[in-house]
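Fresh eyes needed here. Kindly weigh in on this sequence plus structure tokens:
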Amino acid sequence: MSEKKELLQIGAAAKEAGISRQSLQYYLMVGLLEPTCVSDSGRRFFDRDAVARIKLINKLNQSGYTLRAIRELFFEDTGRAKGKKS
């Protein structure tokens, strides 16, 4: 039951989401999202769910939310915020 998902490299995922590659790299760096998978050579890949999340992050940010506030929204229920010990 292995469903083959379309995976996009970082540049294509950023373009699909309507943001710059640098913005997507920053979102990754600050812990707003993680790549769907990483190849053995270190290439990051994103599926459609990740692209939808990138779009949501961008929309919230454009609406006036800070990236810190967005990160807190995403992780408030799980307590998995980057740097927080479990």
